Amino acid sequence: METVKLYNKYSKSINLLIKWGYEVFISNTNEEDKIYFDNFMWSAQKDEKIYTEKDPLRLLGLIILLKEYPPEKATEDFSEEEFNMFTESYLLKPSKY
């Protein structure tokens, strides 16, 4: 099995968002203006809606999910019992990579 590396996917994520008509921005959230990777927030704006995430790949994923499952069509949240059953079914296992 081949492991997918993310290092070259950030620029492709940004390019895809721009291709789809989004304006993409990056901002530094550190109040002292020190630049640390963890302090960046990526935003994409289109049709007066702004989406924000910690990196461009997550931002792309968020926008794709919201296109497929818009909040207006959301159903009720999981009940506690359904949530427990769901999370037990998908326990994370350590990867050897």
Summarize the structure in words.
The model has no long low-confidence stretch (mean pLDDT 78). This protein has 97 residues and is an alpha+beta fold. It is built from three helices and three strands, in the order αβββαα. The radius of gyration is 17 Å and the shape is extended. Strand 2 and strand 3 (49-53) form a beta hairpin.
Count of discrete alpha- or pi-helical segments spanning 4 or more residues: 3
General form = extended
Uncertain residue ranges: none
Helix content: 25-40%
Strand count, sense and barrel status of the largest sheet are: 3 strands, antiparallel
Question: What's the count of strands?
Answer: 3
Query: How large is the radius of gyration?
Result: 17 Å
Output the strand order for the largest sheet. Answer: 1-2-3
**Structural class from helices and strands?**
alpha+beta
Assess the beta-strand content as a share of residues.
15-25%
Measured distance between first and last alpha carbons: 10 Å
Element string (H = helix, E = strand): HEEEHH
Mean pLDDT: 78
